[in-house]
Amino acid sequence: MNPARLESLLAELEGSVTVADDGRVLVADEQKLCGVSLDTLAKKAAFGDAGEQSAARWLLWELGQVLGIYPASIHDLYVARGRGEVPVNFTVPAINLRAMAYDSARAVFKAALPRRVGALIFEIARSEIGYTDQRPAEYFSMVMAAAIKEGYRGPLFVQGDHFQVNAKKFKADPETELQAVFDLAKESIRAGFYNIDIDTSTLVDLSYPTVDEQQRKNYEVCAKLTTFIREQEPEGVTVSVGGEIGEIGEKNSDETELRAFMDGYNRSLPKGMTGLSKISIQTGTAHGGVPLADGTLAQVKIDFNVIKGLSRVAREAYGMAGAVQHGASTLPDEAFSQFVQNEAAEVHLATGFQNMVYDHEAMPSELRERIYEYIRTTHANEQKEGQTEEQFIYKTRKKGLGPFKADLWGLGEDVRSAIRNSLEQKFGFLFDQLNVANTMELATRYAPHVEIHKGLEDYGVTAGRVEDTSELAD
Question: Has this prediction a pTM greater than 0.90?
């Protein structure tokens, strides 16, 4: 990165941040930094030219190190739960921020701070990176910027969600498809994603007669990806890795599948290598919900007995935190406390927040209609036979978030603050229902600050986009 771009950016921050001769970043005026300066940094990190993005992202990383806001792995907390050292009376929310990531993350922290929430994950899926146009370094920077802005201190658990192997591409060319996931994992860890959910459940083949054969490709490829991730870990960090035994939206998972997967996975790992901290299962949900003809969502029945039973097997037999529930953000409000009652380790939440942004009364109807018209024209070939326009728009409007990212960021403060306030209320409700208040002490105990500094040369901006390989939408 050209140091002149850094000097130019520092000038725009009006003395709130300085860089010493030895490269250390210093906060000269925190109050000024958390005002317009921080908004400038976040915007440059997302929309600046290559030099501005690199400088802003590097500054945000180093500011976090100075202020005690740091990328962290939830692995040790999860395996402590598996050992019985940590109670099972809370479920960790994993939140995907597709739309207005900086503003949305600010809303998360505003809800988390008064509740002292530490057991909290920010995540983005392989597919979402593509259609929201948010590569890992940008996404991490938005979370960090929001944390600084709102005065948060502590670990940032940022996760690669559904780093999924596309079954069709894997069958045609396994090495190329696997390399794509390797490359994304490496990029993500460098960006500060110290938590990665591997999704090789797409490779499960139910045509085989035994459960081990059905799960074999799943556990072998998952072990191969785990090995690669372990080779990329920064010193002092054990990346939290999750596996998945049942593709979301398909048949419900059972104990036989869990044991077949885990036994095969553990056999496939190099001897002595640290394995999984959690396992994703299918319990009856569908990613993004199931839209009816009028665009409203069908009621989904979750088998909470599956969650409880498999969570206990995961802890008692394999030392993991428990089972992970995907596709939960569109569930009715009364469902969320049941995740805690049934000992779910983690629950993934995405589409509901996207819906809140799109459908908010403050959202300009003109912008929403422009996005929908883009969907109708650009993605017309994705409308399925028999699908109403309402169903088509609901399922596809996520793909308007990348092309219109700048338009959403550019909304007036009155609009953005109204959306932030609504999101804050929703996040607060979820934190209460999932019982993660007062988990900051646990988070910092099991994920202490491992100080990691970077050089300017670490922040070349990655070009290109991640292909949307799936229809995943939690």
Answer: yes
